Amino acid sequence: MTAERPRPPGPGTAGTADFVRSLALLRQWAGEPSLSRLRVLGGQTPTADGTKVDALPKSTTSHVLRQTDRLPRWDFVRAFVTACFHYCDHPPELIPAELERWRAARAALAEPAAPAPEPPPADVPPPDPAVRLLARRVLREEDRARKGLLGGYSLAPLPFGPDDASGGGAAHDLHAIGRFFGGLRPRRLLVVGESGAGKTVLAVELVLQLLEPLLGGRPGRDRPVPVRLNAARWTLGRPFESWLAEQLAQQFGLAARDAHRLVRDRLVLPVVDGLDELDPEPSSGPPRRAIGLLAELNRYSDLSGRRPGAVVVTCRADRHAELRAAGAGLDNAALIRLRHLNTEQIGTYLRARWPDGHPFAPHRDAVHAALSGPAGEAVHAALATPWRLLLTVTAVESGGHPDDLLHADPDADPAAGAALIAGRLLDAYVPAATHLAPRTAHGTPYRPDQVRSWLVRLAAHLHDQSTLATEADRPRPGFLTHLRGHRNGPPPGLGLHPRGRVGGAAGVDGPVSGIGLHLGGRVGRGAGVGRMAPGLTAIDLVPHLLWPIGGRRRVRVLHSLGCVVFAVIAMLAFWTGSAAGELPDQSLTLALMAGWVVIATVLSLAPWPAAAGGRTGVPRRRRVTGGLVGALGGVPVGVLGGLTGLALTGGRAFGPGFAVVAGGTGGLVLGAVIGLTAAGRPGAERMTVPEAIRAEPLTLLGFGLCGALTGLPPLRLAGAGPLPLAAGVAAAFVLAFALGVVFTIATGGWSKDAELAHPREALHRNAVIGLAFGLIGGVAAFLVFLMKHDVAESLLCALVGGVTFGLAFGAIAWARTMIGLAVAAARGLLPLRLWAFLDWACEANLLRVSGATYQFRHRELQDFLTPGDR
After folding, report:
1. Which of 408, 580, 620, 820 is least surrounded, with the fewest CB atoms within 10 Å of its CB?
2. 3-class secondary-structure state, position 57
3. For the chain, which residues make up each domain, given as ranges?
């Protein structure tokens, strides 16, 4: 190997054969390294299960260099080119630029030649309704996210450019990101930047720019809808396409079949935001979850299956460096880096924020003086991102002075000085935001020390959630050993689940053949026992998952005891109202009651009671119409049930008039409740009957037992024999079970005309379902009690039984959350009016709403407030 050698040969661009021959020429230029030497220099690459294999096996390298009719994969080309340059001691700082040349040449060959333009069709196909619906909802969500991130419409400059060693190259502005992405072939982009550089803002801006032509009403073929996804919600081993479809259904209310169809037809452009947030910090090893997601994205292809699929990923710079060191990356993707703001761009932002004549305009000079002073390098490093600029202006506008905020020792290390300034700005942010957004809606303003204490507690809760999610993602070693023979992940039809469980094929909701459940899949009130809950991520504050702040074990014990007490009270009320103590044989009644109490107790013991919400904003007129339609449909069904009971009892328990009135009343109430609580109009996505049974097995069993209990007293009063008694009780059980299935289907699903979910919508809906349970149970019991008691006594027993029945059996997630938050407030960990505080914190730019969750305004603020992380 000589010190002087000619310029390395470039990649061939005439065709696939020319490209492969240029790889052989590069090897010759490098000095003909042996295949064994290339294998060593090529290093290892991770597979989906975390194991590592050689990037350049000798047999593979020999085969690829001989096969001139197939374009090599990019991971092979990258490893081969890097190994050749390392072998000949090529300057390391020049290797990234050479790799970019080879990547661009390969990408150009991978993209087919553009066909000749065809004349426009005479009949333009109508737009896909699901595409238009998704685009509207994404636009609404991203507009809300943009305002939450910026606190308005003002946007600091966000320069970006190619990631090269010199940091040179053409710089682009944020407003050109849509145009830049549209020119990529293939359309795969990896955005890298420092913490606070504006990666999420860029992702939001890209989505909004790509949505403009989509919603502009232009005729033609449907374009892919850009959808920003939170990477932290992906779970290790989950197939990306099924997860993507699930996110479309959960976050944007798309019907499951439409979501899977749009993903299958590549009518969705995934913008995966926050790859760096998948793994906990500080890192104890390679970022396994991020590596796993990148492996999934590298398998994500376009509609033909022969080219990589369009995708955008954002990642923090230090995590990207860890991934690169581990040999993981986004194949065939253009890499851009968000650059630091220069002094001129900082000045431009400050002039826009504080124009001439503004009360804080004089502070612009103080900031400029700090930037140009003896410690200017440290000050510039501290203010070089839009997030840090926001911290600075917020602190200044609340009364701080730039001289105090931006002071640094000119003789100290600039990096250390920048860290001190950043800590000072973060420390000042909560008091400043509290001062600038005084609480006026609910009495006494919050004090900065209160706000900080509550935010610290929320940050600690997120840290605990991250730990739980990480432990759930850690598969069993024996299972990984079984998978090592499958380089591309689990065998076909199997999914790797939390705690090493194996589930069914991708896209299947709920347990498959009784084995496992996808984390993030559909979990019912009875299916959550022993499984992790969706929403347990490092950044998402989900209202019905905040109860552990009060003390995980303490709250679970209190909730279980409360449910047992309420369940026993409900059964005692039924015992009193039905006069069961006067019956000669009480064993069957006691057995049914005990069985229901056991079911209610088991449901209360679920580690993570689920709250499944619909969408907010369903028009009141539609709900009232649904209630009327349900009532009209329920009356004849109820009358038929009453007459059936009359026939079974032979008229010995009640007469025809009571059968018609009681049956009609019960049917009217049941139908009206189902109609009012239904998620939306007909046509919204609904569960199927098998899905409803799989989602709510214990709840439906409890419904059946309650039906059997309700049907038992009339049969006893009629003196039914053993066989008629068994037949009547079984019929009542089946009828109640079927009504429970109907109720589950009617109140599940999504309304196509509803707005996006609010974070508390699921919890609110759980309380409504509990109320509905109590109302239905109370009315049914009241009609039974009238056979033995007067109206007042029957009403009292039904009221007590209905309320306790709903709390113990229906509103499980709501009850657990309220107990947990009450305990947390009593211990001084959270405010008593937590919802008002969360809403105020969003207005104060301390938190923000992201879909159906709350998040901290910035991850750096969350990390700063996390105990033990400073």
Report:
1. 620
2. coil
3. 16-110, 129-338, 343-436, 554-817
From residue 682, give the alpha-carbon distance in Å to each of 117, 256, 673, 753: 43, 16, 16, 11
Helix (H, G, I), strand (E, B) or coil at 494: coil
Cis ω before 186 (30° cut-off from 0)? yes
3-state helix, strand, coil in the chain (%, to 5): 55, 5, 35
Enclosing H/E stretch for 577: helix 552-577
On whether the CB atoms of residues 483 and 489 are closer than 8 A, the answer is: yes
Say how far apart CA 543 and CA 758 lie, in whole Å.
10
Measure the CA–CA gap between 65 and 16, rounded to whole angstroms: 11
Half-sphere exposure of 421 (CA within 13 A, CB side): 34
At the second CATH level, the architecture of 129-338 is 3-Layer(aba) Sandwich (3.40)
Question: Token match 């090599």: residue?
Answer: 72
CA distances from 206 to 201, 211, 372 (A): 9, 9, 34
Q: How far is CA 518 from CA 239, 246, 255, 475, 488, in A?
A: 11, 11, 19, 13, 19
- Given a cut of 50, whether residue 139 has pLDDT beyond it is yes
Give the list of residues 6+ apart from residue 806 with CB closer than 8 angstroms, or none. 770, 771, 772, 773, 774, 775, 777
Find tokens 């009547």 and name the residue: 728
Q: What is the reported pTM?
A: 0.70
Query: pLDDT digit string (tens) for 457-476?
Result: 999 999 998 888 766 655 54
Which of the residue ranges 314-328, 714-728, 792-806, 819-833 would you say has the lowest mean pLDDT?
A: 714-728
pLDDT on residue 619: 63
DSSP 8-state code for residue 119: P
pLDDT at 520 over 50: no
Helix or strand (DSSP H, E) at 862 = helix 859-865
User: Hey, is 45 helix, strand or coil?
Assistant: strand
pLDDT at residue 455, as a whole number: 96
Distances (CA, A) of 762 to 136, 254, 831: 22, 17, 21
Mean pLDDT of all residues in the chain?
79
Q: Check: CB of residue 400 under 8 Å from CB of residue 428.
A: yes
Q: At residue 684, does pLDDT exceed 50?
A: no
Transcribe 489-546 into DSSP letters: SSPTT-EE-GGG-EE-STT--S-BTTB---TTS---TTT-TTSPPTT--SS-B-GGG-
Q: Whole-angstrom Cα distance, residue 773 to residue 671?
A: 13
Instruction: Say if residues 822 and 550 touch (Cβ distance below 8 Å).
Output: yes
Q: What is the pLDDT of residue 474?
A: 58
Run of H or E residues at 271: strand 268-273
The tokens for 326 are 């581990």
Geometric angle at alpha carbon 50, from 49 and 51, rounded to 5°: 100
Task: Determine what percent of the chain is predicted with pLDDT higher than 90.
Answer: 27
| Pair 429, 395: CB distance under 8 Å | yes
Give the separation between CA 369 and CA 362, rounded to whole angstroms.
Answer: 11
Question: What are the beta bridge partners of residue 272?
Answer: 229, 313
**Three-state secondary structure along 591-650?**
HHHHHHHHHHHHHHCCCCCCCCCCCCCCCHHHHHHHHHHHHHHHHHHHHHHHHHHHHHHC
pLDDT at residue 443 tops 90: no
User: First and final CA of the chain: distance in angstroms?
Assistant: 49
Task: Please give the structure tokens belonging to residue 102.
Answer: 């080879």
Query: Most distant CA pair in the chain: distance in Å?
Result: 110
Q: What angle do CA 432, 438, 442 make, to 5 degrees?
A: 145
- At residue 736, the 3 state secondary structure works out as helix
| Rg (alpha carbons) of the chain, rounded to whole number | 32
Is residue 707 within 8 Å of 732, Cβ to Cβ? yes
Which pLDDT score is estimated for 615? 46
For the chain, what's the residue count?
870
Q: Distance (Å, rounded) from C-alpha 858 to C-alpha 360?
A: 25
Tell which residue, 800, 725, 770, 772, has the closest CA to residue 574.
800
How far is residue 587 from each of residues 580, 581, 775, 797, 805, measured CA to CA in Å? 10, 11, 27, 22, 22
